[in-house]
Amino acid sequence: MILRARIVVPMDGPPIENGAVVVDGRQIMAVGPASQIRGSEPVHDLGDVALMPGLINAHTHLDYTMLRGAIFSQPSFAAWVRRINAVKRSMDSDDCLKSIAHGFDECLRWGTTTVCTIASFPELMPHLPDPPIRTWWFYEMIDVRHRITTEDVVKGALSFFQHRAGSLASFGLSPHAPFTASLDLYRLANGCAQSFSMPLTTHVAESDEEFEMFTAARGPLHAMLASMRRPMGDCGHATPFGHLWDTGAINAQWMLAHMNELNDGDFDLLASLPRGGKPTIIHCPGTHRYFRRAPFAWRRLDELGVNLCTGTDSLASTDSLSLLGELRRLREAEPTLSAERLLRTVTRHPARALRREAQLGKIAPGALADLIAVPVSGSVARVHEEIVQFDRPIPWVMIDGEIRRS
């Protein structure tokens, strides 16, 4: 088919006024001005819209979709962790399955065509239907509790992967965080990911309490984990990021969620790495606001050449799975960021993090036909801004060459 739109926004080139995209099966074959696109395929005129790549949510937890508004502000991050763990224990399998299904529905409503979601209940995977959008399931790995051995966690991870031909599902590994996953677990995850070409993600330096735990061996999070008999010998020596990087537990292949609490030594470490040798960092503006974090160091990280992405995190700590809503929150904190640069953090940048730059996050020959159409009324010069400011459900979505919303 040929899709015509008032403006085509390829994200790897300038916008095309009165543009067209040729889709054959699940793949994009051509893109350009409608006057130059010729063929016998039926033409679908989408009207006054910007046709652009589908959005990529680099970090969320669809398991927690039903927790919207369920956890009120807590006196500490450790208290919030205890509260969410208590809520999770109250959820049965049906609750979790419904939560994931609702999460997919909400992603689709807001134009997300690819999602990276942490699977906190991996035992449910055999009961899930094929995902309706392109999905990377990241198996959450935790071995902080003394009764769960690192080997048992890795064995569970390997049984989690059940590839189905033709499915939109892919898989990755997610040692939860340096305070809940041992260095051995990170190293084993590295080995598994290298053997099976899987992406890796983890939460790092999310809170001041995590920072205090690792740098000073004290604080509410330190006390909580010590009471759970977590070995605490790794505390009091380095920052959370420095702890993982200097031990080789993480490297440039990792997608690091949050990275809120960094000191000058962390920035010096990032600056010392070659431009292609830095990890991806995922910022979640809604969660950042929920926890009242200190301002995120976006500009400083950007100047260092870090691949910065935007994610929603879960509805346990934000109010929507709308990536465009997250970009508007980011703009409030970083008003000098252009709309085009904002959009790159939910298209080109996460595609790079997933090592799918040729397939996702852009409209180009050979890319997958994951597209959204956003109503616009202004000029080509303002199209990126109009997209970022669009605050209603996305009316038209194509995934893998199939129209999912129209």
What descriptive keywords fit this protein?
406 residues; alpha/beta; Urease, subunit C, domain 1; TIM Barrel; 2 domains; 8-stranded mixed sheet; 4-stranded parallel sheet; 16 strands; 22% strand; globular
Topology:
Layout: E1 2-8, E2 16-24, E3 27-33, E4 43-45, E5 49-53, E6 55-60, H1 77-89, H2 93-109, E7 112-119, E8 134-141, H3 150-160, E9 169-175, H4 183-196, E10 200-204, H5 208-216, H6 220-227, H7 240-246, E11 254-258, H8 264-272, E12 280-283, H9 285-290, H10 298-303, E13 308-310, H11 323-333, H12 339-344, H13 348-353, E14 371-375, H14 383-389, E15 396-399, E16 402-405
Parallel strand pairs: 1-4, 1-5, 6-7, 7-8, 8-9, 10-11, 11-12, 12-13
Antiparallel strand pairs: 1-2, 2-3, 5-14, 14-15, 15-16
Helix pairs in contact: 3-4
CATH architecture of the largest domain: Alpha-Beta Barrel
Instruction: Summarize the amount of helix as a percent range.
Output: 25-40%
Question: Rg from C-alpha positions?
Answer: 21 Å
What is the count of structural domains? 2
The secondary-structure class comes to alpha/beta
Q: What's the main sheet like?
A: 8 strands, mixed
